[in-house]
Amino acid sequence: RYWTEKELWGVIDKEGNEVVPFIFDEIKHFWDVNDVFMVHYGGWETGHWGVIDNHGIWLADPVFEDINYDYKDGLFAFYAEDKWNGDDVPLGIYDIKKKKVIFEPQFFDVSFCDDGWIAVEVFDKELGRRIEKLIDINGNEKFHSVYSSIYTWKKPYEVMIRDENGDRHGLIDEDGTVILPCEYYNVAWNGISYEQKLIVFQDGNHQGIKDFNGNMIIEPEYYEIHS
Length: 227
Prior knowledge:
The protein is an all-beta fold and 227 residues long.
């Protein structure tokens, strides 16, 4: 590939049989998916990105300027312009099952949760900053969000507000009810344990542990503390 002016990508099986024809400018994997691929077709000057299955059948026509690596149950996020133009290039969402765009490009980040919700980053005019919120495929919000980040990989959700006052962490349940207000600064990544009611906090280059009432449990003398 490095000494040719043109290369075409395809797929073969273990016996060397062609499974996907060698007609694509590039083939890339989505995260954690092994039977759906994003492909660039039509040449780098005039072509675009689309999506195929593992037999080379088009699932989404090559009409996208670029495609994000996250994929879930037929949903993927796409760019309508070159994503390298800057940090503010918006993302839209395409639904392969419905064969249509369900959200025009408007999000600064998109990720698909295991429980079917979609985490999207938008600009909130009232707050004057970006927030993350959870929506369904119809755009309905799971709960009203004011949070810069919602860590959905564990429950209850650890949330964070980032503004001119710094990064403040807290906890909410799945309905958005506040369990622990966003009043805790310098919290280590994944540093709130709801079960033990403990917070791993950062003090300079060291970490310690406090309880939810602010009592010191372990002085900040360790480089890292993990649950």
